[in-house]
Specification:
The complex is a heterotrimer of chains A (322), B (315) and C (259).
Chain A: H1 2-13, H2 21-64, H3 70-74, H4 87-118, H5 123-137, H6 140-154, H7 161-185, H8 189-197, H9 202-213, H10 215-231, H11 234-239, H12 272-280, H13 285-318
Chain B: H1 2-13, H2 18-65, H3 68-73, H4 89-120, H5 123-138, H6 141-159, H7 168-192, H8 196-204, H9 209-220, H10 222-238, H11 241-246, H12 264-273, H13 281-314
Helix pairs in contact in B: 2-13, 4-7, 4-10, 5-7, 6-7, 7-10, 8-9, 10-13, 12-13
Chain C: E1 8-18, E2 24-34, E3 38-42, H1 49-56, E4 67-74, E5 79-80, H2 88-94, E6 95-98, H3 109-119, H4 125-138, H5 142-145, H6 158-170, E7 176-180, H7 188-201, E8 206-210, H8 214-220, E9 223-228, E10 231-237, H9 238-243, H10 248-254
Parallel strand pairs in C: 3-8, 3-9, 6-7, 7-8
Antiparallel strand pairs in C: 1-2, 1-4, 4-5, 9-10
Classes of the chains: A mainly alpha (322), B mainly alpha (315), C alpha/beta (259).
Bound molecules: adenosine-5'-triphosphate and magnesium ion.
Magnesium ion binds at residues 49-50, 180 of chain C.
């Protein structure tokens, strides 16, 4: 090998490539071998993520297999692993998602619209922007501490569905804001000008055109945000969610006027990932089976949601008309 | 006379003509809407402010009992014991150890993935790979916690029979895989921002793909790649469920990944799971721990932000 | 008219080139490249000059879907550099290129020039240092940078960066050097520097240069080729092309009536 190198050095200093073709070709072959080796390693590195995801999913499905039945969804948690179910957890998750959706979407979209369409480019918009990008990087457990201090004790909302929903709403706010802004940015100025030209006010332009045409992009961000919220565990634990809830919150719909009922907002709750964490923390292996089954359900839910969002975004990019 | 009154009438009614009134109403409405939208945007500022305020407020109560010196130099963390000690170091050590293991996995693999995607993969492979990486980011961390505790740890125990059931190694490894997509996507972004003319310059010298990637593209994208690493550190430090499930709950001043130890985040989870009275020292201690965590991640996020901005301005 | 006593370094034979989108950018181009001479390539924007130049070192191979037909034969070994069996990397080790906009690497001045040597596995520090000095002298940059070889290349002026890129290409002793509008981003003084440099370089190697500047073509080149819409319209020694072009289009273009 040493001889080899010195031969090539000779090729460079004394003679042209042509006079040393053999050595040069050998060197090129060696270099190209590196290309192939690296491409192989790169593909492996890329596959590692996919393989882990696959292993994880298969592991959960295989471990949790005995609990894949409707009873698992219709039973309350129980001291006996075999008859414990997810009823209160999935109902809790669903109700919290409603609160999260109703807070994060209007506020996030409004904030995104403001930053893109209204905000003057000065220190004020910079301040907001820095905060949004900073919030996106704050660990989720810190949101839990915020909620514990502010919602649970400060505003005295207690360890309730409302508290949890608001917390997750704040958590996904940056996601909704950023995706709203990106979607709006994709709309050409020409469309705005066309609307202004027929005498529309700013708000008419924004609500009738800008927001309308960016719906798809906004929806993508909302789905990704909601899927993140469904799987979040740390902030909800920090609020102090109970893990053993053998009852359902009061129904949001009642049969007497006004047919809607808001008591459920102040009810205590549990959610899917917390139920999973609780079962996972028990030493008894029988509960681990429940945890696995719950994990499989959560993963399926989030993969489905994220997959939908990615597909949606792909479709939007493909169908861009301008 | 008639015309005069007419004119007078006309003159006096002009300022409140229906059209103008409508305009005023319209302007007013536009103003209100803008104000509402601005308030929504300000919610981000408010949230940051609230986080800082709450953490500081509750920590303030904590530091009335505990001296800063003890907090930062003490080597025992047992706020809930009879004989309470308040040295944050064991939690910091746990956090650093798990993060280090995670980065030892995520930095090389994430970087290689980024180089591969940006310089080697065909358009088609990239189109398939990137959504998959995104899906990986979307997997809830509690599921990775399960994986670390009940899949990776038993596997590792076959290799090191002495490994405890709760250990930082397994949590760190799984966290590393979790972080790979973050590094890969930020670093790949930075590498693709390197102008094609620079690559052409290298290829024109007879360089191969690998040589071009390593000797030209990677150095050209340094600040972006560094940003990716810094953001990854911030993720690792703030990650909660994997360590809470798999790394153990016992605060322990050790940097040995084969041992179990609590991280800052795991401690917060552990305390929150119990039923601590509001305003007790244990309750305040999680805010003090949270303040340290927040400060750490904030530093990394700011550094990462600066590095990222630098590469965006560069090309 | 063409001096046949000068040896041929390369020639394109019935060269057709198709971009990935199917656009045929070169149509049956036949053109010689004489050894130790400068050949200038002129023609209106979009006529295919860059495309032609980049065939020589197979730059088009970097982008999938591009297709060559015909050949570019190098002498004295009679290798068709476009042949499927020929490695583009080997071709690029023999044929260097200087681009329109200076494109130094994000490295020091020294490392930029040494790049080709590193790529060729040269490890001997003495050899590298000597070669770098020689190349920088050859590119008339040595005196300006000899005290700051470890500065980043980005800190040089535009004209200096372009000479650095020439030094980078020179350091590996290429047989042919391709220049694609090397002075279009430079001021008149830097342009004059580069032109002088090219005239000196031709003692060592063969040069093919694309230019939009008629005076430049007239000043530096020995032969001139006029291209139009992917075809080679006229080729001859520079004096003839500029004083007595045979085709009307060439004359119109040169005198600025067109293009
Ligand atoms: N990547 C590409 N794909 C498809 N067509 C291309 C591509 N690059 C160039 N072309 C087309 O090929 C033709 C020749 O382009 P080329 O860049 O060779 O022109 P040029 O003579 O160098 O022009 P200029 O003087 O402006 O640099 C043009 O019609 C151009 O539009
Ligand atoms: Mg050109």
């Amino acid at each position: 090998m040493a001889l080899h190198d010195s031969q090539i050095a000779g090729a460079l200093t004394k003679a042209s490539v042509l006079e040393n073709l053999g050595a040069v070709r050998a060197m090129i072959r060696r270099h190209k071998r590196n290309d192939i080796v690296f491409a192989g390693i790169g593909l492996l590195a890329l596959m590692l993520g996919l393989l882990t995801l696959l292993t994880l999913f298969i592991d959960l499905v295989m471990d949790g297999y005995p609990r894949f039945n409707l009873q698992f969804l219709s039973e309350f948690p129980s001291r006996r692993a075999g008859s414990a179910g997810l009823l209160s957890a999935w109902v809790g998750s669903a109700l919290i998602m409603i609160v999260t959706f109703l807070t994060a979407v209007p506020v996030g979209v409004a904030a995104g619209v403001y930053l893109e369409e209204y905000a003057p480019k000065n220190w004020f918009s910079d301040l907001i922007e820095i905060n949004v990008s900073n919030l996106a990087g704050v660990p989720s457990i810190i949101y839990g501490l915020l909620a514990l201090g502010l919602f649970v004790y400060g505003l005295d909302l207690g360890q309730s569905i409302l508290t949890a929903g608001l917390t997750l709403g704040l958590l996904i706010l940056p996601i909704v804001i950023v995706s709203t802004r990106e979607a709006i940015r994709g709309i050409p100025v020409a469309i705005r000008e066309a609307a202004y030209a027929v005498g529309a006010t700013k708000w008419q332009v924004v609500s009738d055109h800008v927001v309308k045409y960016s719906q798809g992009g906004i929806l993508t961000g909302v789905i990704i945000g909601m899927s993140r919220a469904i799987g979040e565990t740390a902030p909800i634990i920090t609020i102090g969610a109970l893990t053993f809830i053998a009852f359902l919150p009061p129904s949001p719909i009642s049969d007497v006027a006004p047919y809607l009922n808001f008591e459920w907002l102040s009810s205590s709750f549990t959610v899917l990932p917390i139920q999973m964490f609780n079962w996972l923390s028990r030493p008894d292996h029988a509960f681990h089976i429940n945890a696995a089954a719950t994990g499989a359900i959560i993963i399926m839910l989030t993969l489905l949601m994220n997959g939908t969002a990615i597909y949606l975004r792909y479709q939007i990019r493909k169908n861009i008309k301008w | 006379m008639n015309t005069a009154t007419n004119m007078l009438n006309h003159f006096t009614t002009l300022p409140i003509s229906p059209r103008l009134a409508k305009n005023i109403r319209r302007n007013f409405k536009e103003r209100i809407i803008e104000l509402i939208l601005m308030l929504a945007a300000l919610s981000a500022v408010f949230t940051t402010f609230a986080i800082v305020a709450i953490l500081l407020y509750e920590s303030f109560g904590f530091f009335k009992t505990v001296s800063l010196i003890e907090f930062f130099t003490g080597t025992q963390w047992t706020p809930l014991f009879e004989d309470a000690h308040y040295g944050i170091m064991p939690l910091v050590a746990g956090t650093l150890t798990t993060s280090f293991v995670a980065l030892a996995v995520a930095v090389p693999i994430g970087t290689i993935t980024a180089i591969y995607l940006s310089e080697f993969a065909s358009h088609k492979v990239r189109e398939i790979a990137k959504p998959i990486l995104e899906l990986l980011v979307g997997v809830p961390t509690i599921a990775f916690g399960y994986f670390a505790l009940l899949f990776v740890t038993p596997l590792l125990q076959k290799i090191y029979p002495g490994l405890p059931g709760f250990n930082m190694l397994s949590a760190g490894l799984v966290m590393g895989v979790m972080i790979v997509p973050y590094i890969a996507s930020v670093a790949e972004d930075a590498m693709r921002a390197v102008p094609m003319s620079m690559r052409e310059g290298s290829y024109a010298m007879g360089a191969t793909r690998f040589q071009t990637a390593i000797r030209v593209v990677t150095p050209a994208a340094t600040s972006g790649i560094v940003a990716a690493y810094i953001l990854a550190i911030s993720r690792a430090v703030g990650e909660t469920m994997v360590v809470a499930v798999a790394a153990g709950q016992q605060p322990k001043l050790t940097f040995d990944p084969t041992e179990g130890a609590a991280t800052i985040t795991a401690y917060i989870v552990q305390v929150a799971m119990g039923d601590l009275p509001h305003a007790s020292i244990g309750y305040q201690s999680i805010f003090a721990a949270g303040l340290v965590l927040f400060a750490l991640t904030l530093c990394f996020n700011i550094l990462g932000h600066i590095a990222r901005k630098k590469y965006r301005e560069q090309y | 008219m063409v001096n046949t006593s000068t040896p041929l370094k390369a020639e394109s034979k019935d060269l057709n080139f198709f971009y990935a989108n199917g656009h045929q950018a070169l149509k049956s181009v036949n053109m010689p490249l004489y050894e130790n001479k400068i050949t200038a390539l002129i023609g209106p924007s979009g006529c295919g000059k860059s495309t032609f130049l980049r065939c020589f070192n197979r730059m088009h191979d970097l982008y999938p879907g591009n297709k060559y037909e015909g050949g570019i034969v190098m002498h004295p070994d009679n290798t068709n550099v476009l042949a499927a069996g020929v490695d583009p990397i080997e071709v690029r080790m023999r044929i260097s290129m200087v681009f329109q906009k200076p494109n130094p690497f994000p490295k020091t001045i020294f490392e930029n020039v040494a790049y080709g040597l590193h790529v060729r596995d040269e490890k001997n520090k003495r050899v590298i240092a000597d070669k770098v000095e020689e190349a920088l002298k050859g590119a008339a940059l040595w005196d300006e940078v000899k005290d700051r070889l470890n500065d980043l290349a980005f800190n040089l002026s535009g004209g200096q960066q372009q000479r650095l890129c020439i030094a980078r290409a020179l350091a590996t002793d290429p047989e042919i050097m391709l220049f694609d509008e090397p002075t279009s981003a430079l001021d008149p003084i830097a342009t004059a520097n580069i032109e002088e440099l090219m005239s000196e370089l031709k003692n060592k190697l063969t040069i093919l240069v694309v230019t939009h500047n008629m005076q430049q073509a007239a000043r530096v080149s020995d032969y001139t080729a006029y291209m139009y819409l992917g075809e080679l319209m006229e080729y001859g020694d520079t004096d003839t092309i500029f004083t007595r072009p045979t085709r009307r289009e060439t004359e119109d273009y040169i005198t600025g009536k067109f293009g």
